[in-house]
User: What shape does this take?
Amino acid sequence: MGNSGKGISRRQFLTSSAAIGLGGLLSKKVFGRSKESGLSKKSGTRLILLGTGGGPHQNKMRSQSSWVVLVNDVPYVVDCGEGVARQLVFANVLLQNLRYIFITHHHSDHNLDYGNLIYDAWVYGFKGRIDSYGPPPLEKMTKFYFEMNAYDINIRIPDEGRLPFTQRIFVHEFSKDDVVLQNESVKVTAALVHHPPVEPSFAYRFDTPDRSIVFSGDTTPCDNLIKLAQGADVLVHEVLHKPSLTKAMARGAHAERLLEHILAAHTSHVDVGKVAKAAGVKTLVLTHFVPSDDSLLTDEIWIEGAKTHFNGEVIAGKDLMEI
Assistant: This one.
């Protein structure tokens, strides 16, 4: 099309589309709230499992690792496996409300969409700041992501009237056990865990006025994690099923080497119960399932393994499950 009098500019198109979209949202109000805009504001602490699959392979059963703690509806995202932004949308968590991100370690199934999540929050119109926490090289990753996407970012700011945002992202790197965040709503403590060869690798504990939630990250059974999780209400812990994994990998290339790595860096569905018992937690939530696409591995198989040593509540996590 040429620039005839009947044409519209890109900016006019975006403005018109936004108006149409807003009209659609307003037409879908249910009991005074919009389906697309999420549920009405809630107080207290909520946990939503965004992605419960382990490893970098895509599958139809589970998304990659990511979870979110909502404290008075403020989201604290833990890990950013591929698809985390879309999972937040499915969970009715507003991307423009993104405030805190925590990365346990730098394996791709935990950090691949870290930069994309920040970008998506910007596109949705966040106006505050975002603080991200994790081991090195998180600061370098953040800088390189902005450099890689500078062309797109610099076009959208004037063309779509968006606000500059890279100066409002604050990165906090650390390499040892510490309280990494404390505000009026939550205290977040990081503890080193054992996930060779990735060093450092962290678990996180969130203490709020009404709940305590611990995320193991990827780890073998680990005394430092047990110490961190002492008496917690919820322990969200990675898990693998060794017999199924061994069988599945027997057909693959480099199977022996990869299997050796996985078994030396993760926690079995039986040993995870030992960890939960030693920590004295109330509820054990299984996540980061390996293998994550075996339809023969029922919830009961995972839970019974953990209950070999743990008498508390055990939940086999699923994507978008709220606990």
About this structure: The first strand starts at residue 29 and ends at 30.
